[in-house]
Structure formats: structure tokens, C-alpha cells
Amino acid sequence: MGGCTSKDTASSDDKKGGMVDQAVLDKLEAGFTKLSTSDSKSLLKKHLTKEIFDALKTKKTSFGSTLLDVIQSGVENLDSGVGIYAPDAESYTVFADLFDPIIDDYHGGFKKTDKHPPKDFGDVDTLGNLDPTGEFIVSTRVRCGRSMEGYPFNPCLTEAQYKEMEEKVSSTLSGLEGELKGTFYPLTGMSKEVQQKLIDDHFLFKEGDRFLQAANACRFWPTGRGIFHNDDKTFLVWCNEEDHLRIISMQQGGDLGQVYRRLVTAVNDIEKRIPFSHHDRFGFLTFCPTNLGTTVRASVHIKVPKLAANKEKLEEVASKFNLQVRGTRGEHTEAEGGIYDISNKRRLGLTEYQAVKEMHDGIAELIKIEKEL
Question: Where is each Phosphagen kinase C-terminal domain found (predicted)?
Fold first, then answer.
């Protein structure tokens, strides 16, 4: 498809040097035509003007990534909400004319001149239990994404790099102690039973959906992919799913304070051992521009049957607190048994603490309204 997808076969001179292949340019032109004549509602369609397209179509990063690598998922999947991914960290700079307006749009105002604030987890003891009686919140989860410095993102990784990264992650995590102590399970060679059990527990990730497939994020599957979880099953790390690392803290019930505290402890611990990719303007770097900055997604699975029957009210409160409402099993799924997955939408331009607090306040408000209805 694009440049970095043939990374293992192309010599480095072909990749980095000079021109974008004619074949790639042809695909780009066809893709642009398909997109611009479609009724896609994606941010890609909205922001990829002919001027920007023409300015970017001949550019390449030092990993050989082209505009095609950036937009191919949104071109193939016209129902995308966003439609672009960064094949490597450099893409955010090389293809800034496209990334910047999309990032600004998605994150609710993050202008070219804005800078993401320094990392600040705040006072973890100020967040408590959102649902002490256990009436509404089924489970609570806070996760963040991290990229390992010196490695590109999924589409550009070689098989050798996947293996090397898995080795680093696995040896780092095996050093965790106390509540975080656990086991690393490589996907390679994992028995079908263990695999299915972990999927049913919502612990394991499956091979990428069509959006990630189209972005070439699933190459050499399952090489280099793995999952770590602690003995209590309240702390997980996904290795080389969509991002290099997804660090996840979760438990049943509504004790956001406990879940957040565990995540912060873990991130600080891992960060001492693995250097993470950080960008002066965008904060922590991720494969998908929706996760930039804090990369924090704080979510609950919540039962609000009355609000569920009044979808407009639910959406109204959600947008007031910048919350995202999804189906039970995450993005692009339905709510099973009236249980929604509700999370903070904003991750960029605010601190980690503010992102989690926004979710905290929004969920508190939803519960209050549900009780009153």
C-alpha cells in the first residue's frame, strides 16, 4: 500500500529517498476521488481539501511513510469517524497540514499554537467511589497508551522489532511488585482455551478490526503481541495491540479513585524502565490522533435504564461533560442489556487528572439524573 508497509523488503534507500512511487500516487488519487465523491461523515473527508491533498501527496517520512499510509483506513472505511492514523511519530509533523485541523476538531479546540500541558496526575486521593451502593456502575476502567521511544508505530514495525519490543515489555513487567505483580502471556503459542477465556474476561484483544486492518496495523500477527495481568486481574498491559503499550487498571463497581491510583502507580513504575515517545506540542504520542496528549480514557460500564429510554437526554448530558457513549463492548457495538460504556472524550490540552475528573463529574451527573427520572 504505502511506503512503510513494504519496509522489510525495500532497501532503506528506496524507502527514504526521494519520490513517492507512481503506484502509491495513483492509489492516492483514486482514494481522494472516492472520498471526495462519497457522503462520508469522517473528519478526514471534512479536512482533506484538494489543496492539502496536493501539498502532501508527494511527502514521505524517514520511515518511508506516505499520505496513503495516513489516510488509507478512512478511504477504505467511509463510515470512519476520524479516518486517519500516524504510521510513525514523524507523520504528525510531515503531514501536519492534515493532522492539525483534525486534531483540533476532534479534541474540541486544539489550535496550531496550543501546547499540551506537562504530565500531571493530580492528587489521586481526591477521587472516590462514584456509586457506593453498587446500583448503577458495573465496572470502572482507566487506561492510557504509550509508545516506546525509538520505534515507529504498527504499520512500519519489522518482525524483528516486534519481537524485540515484546522482550523489553515482558522483562520490564516481570519486575513489577505488590498489587501489580503478575504474568505475561505472549499471543504466539497461546492455547485456544486460554485465548478465549481472556477474550471473554474482556482482557485480551483480538486481531484488529477493519479500521486497523486497513491501516496496516496488524502485520506479522500475533508476533510481538502479548498481555500481562496481575494476579487480582485488576491491572493489565496490552503489548502491541493498537499502540505499543496500553496500560489498563480496572475492577468491578464504581471506585474510580482506587482504579486511578493503581494506574498512576503502574505508569510511574513502568516509565522508570521504558522511555516513552513524547512530543513537545502533543504530549504522549499514539497511533491514532484521538488518543494523543494524556492518552487517558477513563470509563464505566453503567446501567441507566431510564436515560437509555431517553437517548436525547443521555446525549445532552454526555456532550455537556465531553463524554463519549458507546455500546457495551466498545466502539462500533450496541448496548447490551441497557449497559453503556461511557468515557471522557477529551485527552488533549488538559492534564491527566482533568481528563479523569471530567468523566467523574459527568458520571456523577448522569447518576443524579437517573435517580430523579
Answer: 136-373
Instruction: Cell numbers for 255, please give them.
Output: 471506585
Query: Do 82 and 102 sit in the same domain of this protein?
Result: yes
**301 assigned to a ligand binding site:** yes
145-179: pLDDT as tens digits? 999 998 999 999 999 999 999 999 999 999 999 99
Q: How many domains does the chain contain in total?
A: 3
CB 184 within 8 A of CB 174: yes
297 belongs to an annotated ligand binding site: yes
Q: Does the pLDDT value for residue 62 go beyond 70?
A: yes
293 is in an annotated binding site: no
The CATH number that applies at residue 218 is: 3.30.590.10
Q: Is 328 annotated as a binding residue?
A: yes
Domain assignment of residue 343, yes or no: yes
Q: Which of 115-119, 201-205, 307-311 has the highest mean pLDDT?
A: 115-119
Q: DSSP label at 335?
A: P
Final residue of a structural domain among 107, 139, 167: 107
Express each pLDDT in 91-143 by its tens digit.
999 999 999 999 999 888 899 999 999 999 999 999 999 999 999 999 999 99
pTM score, whole prediction: 0.88
**Residue 5 covered by a domain:** no
Local structure of 183: helix, strand or coil: strand
**Domain extent at residue 57:** 22-107
Of 242, 264, 285, the residue that ends a domain is 242
Known catalytic residues are 143, 242, 246, 288, 290, 297, 326, 331
User: What is the greatest pairwise CA distance in the chain?
Assistant: 66
Where are the strands (E) in 31-136, listed by range?
none
**Residue 142 assigned as binding residue:** yes
